[in-house]
Amino acid sequence: MKMKIYFSKVYRFLIVLVLLESYIFTRSSNAFFPRINEPNKQELKSKSIAFGKTAIHLIQFGQNNEAIKLLKLAVKLNPKETELWTSLAEAQVRVNKNYQALSSLNKAIKLKPREDSIHFSKASIYINLNNPQKAKSSIEKGLSINKDNERGYFQLGNTEIMLKNYQLALNAFKKSSKINSKFWQSINNEGLVLYELNNSKEAILRFKSALNISNDAEPMLALAIALISSGKKSTESLNLAKEALKANPQYVSRDYQAKQLWGKKLQESAEILFKMQEMRKVVKEAKEKNE
């Protein structure tokens, strides 16, 4: 509560400070009130950018609603500044105002239609809204501008998973990891798709490759599941599963697994693993942490 009050005061102080700088007061010899000279276009632009920079700091501190207020004022002062609209969209997404964020990004696209990152940002929102078809459309627009964007192909693969187009998803992830061989998320998701396509051997290789790049809980747990379901149960594979659940207990939930685009087959294999005697304690602890 004290933190919120503090940032609210900081926000008000910053607003007052910037607004005071926006006006030049000159007193006439015959006037009772000071005359206010309206700021010119350059002054409005510079102040809008100052608002934008302040808003970014507010977003970094989690003060997203305050940032939205500031950015709305900034785009009124300078509606042709693309970065202000994209920053506004980011703040709106953080408070689940997804449709407002889409509207902000549409305004940014009108200003810079050839900016691929804006199309990819729209796609991320559509994915969050569980609308893979619109997400795919935005991604394809972004990739038509920049065909070497590994994150664009990663997003495309994710939308194809949502649409159950597993072979297309695999192709997209391969393009992503070809562009950036260290992009472990794409390599990991190749494994997710291969597992659903009943190619456990290749899936295991992808999970191992992803794990060699990043010690993240997802490839760690997915690798353990794939190994054990392939008849390679060992102390090492069980320890991998335990370590993964301790690192991220949310993976004990099928709902969370689904949000991470795990397919039905991998989820079912995870359920079998979690019921094993050796896993009961760590699974129980993970469930308690999720409550």
Which helices and strands occur, and which strands form pairs?
Blueprint: H1 2-21, E1 24-26, E2 35-37, H2 41-60, H3 64-77, H4 82-94, H5 98-111, H6 116-128, H7 132-145, H8 150-162, H9 166-179, H10 184-196, H11 200-213, H12 217-229, H13 235-247, H14 254-259, H15 264-274, H16 280-290
Antiparallel strand pairs: 1-2
Helix pairs in contact: 1-2, 2-3, 2-4, 3-4, 4-5, 5-6, 6-7, 6-8, 7-8, 8-9, 8-10, 9-10, 10-11, 10-12, 11-12, 12-13, 12-15
Could you give a quick summary of the protein structure above?
With 291 residues, the chain is mainly α. The protein has helices spanning 2-21, 41-60, 64-77, 82-94, 98-111, 116-128, 132-145, 150-162, 166-179, 184-196, 200-213, 217-229, 235-247, 254-259, 264-274, 280-290, and strands at residues 24-26, 35-37. The longest helix is centred in the first third of the chain and has 20 residues, at 2-21.
Features:
291 residues; mainly alpha; Serine Threonine Protein Phosphatase 5, Tetratricopeptide repeat; 16 helices; 2% strand; elongated
